[in-house]
Amino acid sequence: MKFSFPALLSTLLIGFLPLLTQAEPALEHTLSNGMKVIVKEDHRAPTVAHMIWYRIGSTDEVNGTTGVAHALEHMMFKGTKTLKPGEFSARVAALGGRENAFTSKDYTAYFQQIEKSRLEKVMALEADRMASLVFDKEEFAKEIRVVMEERRWRTEDQPIPLLYEALNAAAFSAHPYHHPVVGWMSDLQNMTVEDAKVWHDRWYAPNNAIMVVSGDVNARAVFALAEKHFGRIQAKKLPRTKPQEEPPQKGLRRIVVKAPAENPYVALAFKAPTLRDVEKDVDPYALEVLSAVLDGYDNARLNAKLVRTDRVANSAGASYSNVARGPVLFVLDGVPAQGTTTDQLEKLLRAEVERVAKEGVSEEELKRVKAQLVAGQVYKRDSIFGQAMEIGMMEASGLSHRDIDRTIDKLKTVTAQQVQDVARRYFSDDTLTVATLVPLPLSEKKAPPPSGLRH
């Protein structure tokens, strides 16, 4: 009997995956002040990832102060009642660790990776800046200039990020995902240190935070350390947040962005469902498999047909993530090859989805794609930091870390019919926003990014 290599690989992966998912579960404890602590023991190396996730991001901002969540993230490194500006990072470095932070639409997180015996020291540092951050007007004035420069360097001077900023602003008319995480420049220019302090005082509380620790630790010992350093911080009465629903889209939206760039580019964003009920939802898993059918591995459909065979695109892709606090998009994108227009590539990208809608996928292709997809989900947790990241993202997005393995089980059960069904139902003009990049002549070589950017 002969096997093709892809078929053999799929068979081996499917058989091996149950072994990969049989790991010790994470343990959870909630402090008396409402702070959730989740510990994932992994004793392969004497290192630890320590993360503090705040359930607050740019989606919680209002007009006039967009970007304040990210601006505060910068201020968290600018001193406390016991630490001078920059001393937090200096102490972590002296301990042999590395640290950083990131802000997203849904959450803000701070992390350190450290040798296991130094865990308590970085935990004490995080507790200190949760409770006693200092808001110095001069330090804020310097840091907001860094944030504005970060916006210029990472968005305004970069054609693809600039296009996606415009795409989100067009796709979401009412939901705050309309706003960029870094904020609009006019809001940054008018932001004050009081804006950052109000944000911190309102949202940075133990009962709005999740501690995630993964690595060579004992969970009970971590819970005791968390109680020692964070348990003394009082809970706050958190503001009541109101639902911010995106109204149904009633027709195709189209935008054009002109910017200096080497090539034209097109992105098609379709409104798609977010994972809300891990057990009952079906379509989010089927859409994830569809995304993998189109662009989940090197020889997936978009790359195989549009780039390699027909040579009408220099690149073509699909992306979809179903974990978020708000609405999500299924995106098709590509760079047309010479002789192909963005309008033509747009039609060709949609044609590949329509082909799935009409013809479906074979059981062999489905098996191969699911094996690749599930293996990718499992392998990304191979690192200690990756495990902490996935736990934190699930929890901060409103799901449970206990459902991580269950989402993999659900992906395995997706049928060819379910993939075909979602390809038929979610890709109409009524849910679509198209963004096209029209390249302008490249300007002189841009200056390197400024120092002081944190991530």
UniProtKB/TrEMBL annotation:
<dbReference type="InterPro" id="IPR050361">
    <property type="entry name" value="MPP/UQCRC_Complex"/>
</dbReference>
<dbReference type="GO" id="GO:0006508">
    <property type="term" value="P:proteolysis"/>
</dbReference>
<keyword id="KW-0732">Signal</keyword>
<dbReference type="Pfam" id="PF00675">
    <property type="entry name" value="Peptidase_M16"/>
</dbReference>
<feature type="domain" description="Peptidase M16 C-terminal">
    <location>
        <begin position="190"/>
        <end position="373"/>
    </location>
</feature>
<feature type="signal peptide">
    <location>
        <begin position="1"/>
        <end position="23"/>
    </location>
</feature>
<dbReference type="GO" id="GO:0008233">
    <property type="term" value="F:peptidase activity"/>
</dbReference>
<dbReference type="InterPro" id="IPR011765">
    <property type="entry name" value="Pept_M16_N"/>
</dbReference>
<keyword id="KW-0645">Protease</keyword>
<keyword id="KW-0378">Hydrolase</keyword>
<dbReference type="GO" id="GO:0046872">
    <property type="term" value="F:metal ion binding"/>
</dbReference>
<comment type="similarity">
    <text>Belongs to the peptidase M16 family.</text>
</comment>
<protein>
    <submittedName>
        <fullName>Zinc protease</fullName>
    </submittedName>
</protein>
<dbReference type="Pfam" id="PF05193">
    <property type="entry name" value="Peptidase_M16_C"/>
</dbReference>
<feature type="domain" description="Peptidase M16 N-terminal">
    <location>
        <begin position="36"/>
        <end position="181"/>
    </location>
</feature>
<dbReference type="InterPro" id="IPR011249">
    <property type="entry name" value="Metalloenz_LuxS/M16"/>
</dbReference>
<dbReference type="InterPro" id="IPR007863">
    <property type="entry name" value="Peptidase_M16_C"/>
</dbReference>
